Sequence to fold (338 residues):
Amino acid sequence: MKNKQWILKNFPVGDISEGDLVLEENEVSELLDDQVLIRNIYLSLDPANRGWMSGQKSYVDAMKTGDIMRGGTIGIIEESKNDKFKKGEIVNCMGGWQEYFISDGKGVRQIPQGTGFPLDSYMSVLGMTGLTAYFGLLDVTDPQQGETLVVSAAAGAVGSIVCQIGKIKGCKVVGIAGSDSKCEWLTRELGIDAAINYKTDNLRQRLKEECPDGIDIYFENVGGSITEAVLTRMNINGRISLCGLISVYNSKSLASGPAWGNLLVKRIKLKGFIVFDYFKRYMEAYLDLTKWMKEGKIQYKNHIIPDIENAGLAIKKLFSGENEGKLIIQVSENSTKN
Ligand SMILES: NC(=O)c1ccc[n+]([C@@H]2O[C@H](COP(=O)([O-])OP(=O)(O)OC[C@H]3O[C@@H](n4cnc5c(N)ncnc54)[C@H](OP(=O)(O)O)[C@@H]3O)[C@@H](O)[C@H]2O)c1
Fold:
């Protein structure tokens, strides 16, 4: 039996180009013991595919050139030599970009049948997409009634589910999407509070108008300039769910600014803080610091400049790097003993 398969031939540079993926036709091999033959019904195409094609290990092993393109699938068991699976069962797995997939059963999960939900919904809202939206919003950001939630790529697979869960949780939901029709769908059909077309609207201005009380939660799907615009309006104790960064997946060079991708794939939790929050715990720090200084474990340097008049020029040293240690203006003489 023939099997059409997409093979990764080159690691794309920038956008995926012709020739990076090549369709080949190969024979389906004979089933061995414990194997199942799955006929793929649905193949999920995901932004993540681009990352998997980069040849770099991230949260999954790197693909190699010559591999069948990796992809999530829903399929039917055509033949089984594995006790755990029966012919005719519908399964979900990483069956790849191909017609048939032979598996030893690892990572293959049966999909319930007769539920009344269309099979393709198990590839989206009842599959990885829904799971991403559900936990990415609820577990990561703990949305509360009345909070303002902004979602980028809001009309997309994940984003649209996030928007709706946000509404269910009583949030004010503002979506960012790339066309008027998507924005209309979000507001008219999904009932979110506002949608901004980032391609034609002044995003910063619209965020100001639509989020007058600031943004409590940002569900990040995109990265880049959209993130920057959103960050300026985040509220104190806001939360960001760093789900994806699609705007940079095709970049040929590293984007300027922090490497958000590292935070994402390494599941880093990021929390801002302001020293004021710790004033009430000052003594804890004071006792340790003075002890360490006495023990010679901590040194410090002060860069003291006389006269208040010099303050205006002195401040520039902080930005030119001319300060050596803590920059201080000596406004008047120190007559104390310590
Ligand atoms: N962390 C996880 O486990 C996980 C799991 C699944 C998905 N994800 C991430 O979730 C995000 C959405 O994935 P999805 O599968 O639901 O795809 P999707 O949102 O259905 O499709 C991607 C959308 O991204 C928008 N987009 C593309 N390039 C853009 C750019 N340069 N600037 C702004 N928007 C851009 C486009 O919508 P517009 O028309 O609005 O531009 C496009 O429709 C992706 O970043 C993906 O990597 C993460």
User: Anything to note?
Assistant: The two ends are 88 Å apart (CA to CA).
